Amino acid sequence: EAQVTQNPRYLITVTGKKLTVTCSQNMNHEYMSWYRQDPGLGLRQIYYSMNVEVTDKGDVPEGYKVSRKEKRNFPLILESPSPNQTSLYFCASSLGGWGTEAFFGQGTRLTVV
Amino acid sequence: GEDVEQSLFLSVREGDSSVINCTYTDSSSTYLYWYKQEPGAGLQLLTYIFSNMDMKQDQRLTVLLNKKDKHLSLRIADTQTGDSAIYFCAERKGAGTASKLTFGTGTRLQVTL
User: Fold this and answer.
1) Do the chains contact at A98 and B99, CB–CB below 8 Å?
2) Distance CA A93, CA A104 (A)
3) What pLDDT digit, counting tens, does each position of B23-72 carry?
4) Chain A contact set for B40 (CB, 8 A)
5) Rg (CA), chain B
6) How close B108 gets to chain A, by Cα (Å)?
7) What tens digit of pLDDT does each residue of A44-92 get?
8) Are B42 and A45 within 8 A, CB to CB?
């Protein structure tokens, strides 16, 4: 089954404690992206990757890092989380450019206290 | 501006038609999309329309595009309780590897009996 898998689904952490949210896709997609969803703001892109070892900033990259060492995985790293990073995070992948369908993960609800 | 705008909430009765509206920003956008987000789930692509089209119909869904006004709408005929969800419009800006999706704020559709 084609899918994008994020882990964990829920996470509560404390300010400053480094964390990683994993994302894996089994469709051999080139494009992967991270979004955060906040009430009234829709989805905002954090980082995206066009292929292995190619990553770029989205609209709200501050406080986040990503890596793309292999095609299937695109982890999101918060080196020093802060309460304003409390949000719902989605990973997405697609075969080519964004004109093709993007598949989304189930989401990770992160709370930073 | 940079925002893709949608009204936040819509309530309809089961069996009626729903119309969800969206105003996008970039007249050069090539693709426009509608995504559905059910509770606790990621986004699922419903339909999309090329910018050189005025209308696209897919079973109960009708997408209308007014390029002059940069207005996109999604009509759901015979709305069912299973249609209750958040609906996001999105525009594809740019071309090829430089393209990206920009999402609206989402419209929560509530279907009542």
Assistant:
1) yes
2) 7
3) 988 777 778 899 999 988 889 989 989 888 899 999 999 999 999 999 99
4) 106-107
5) 14
6) 11
7) 999 999 889 999 999 899 999 999 999 999 999 999 999 999 999 999 9
8) no
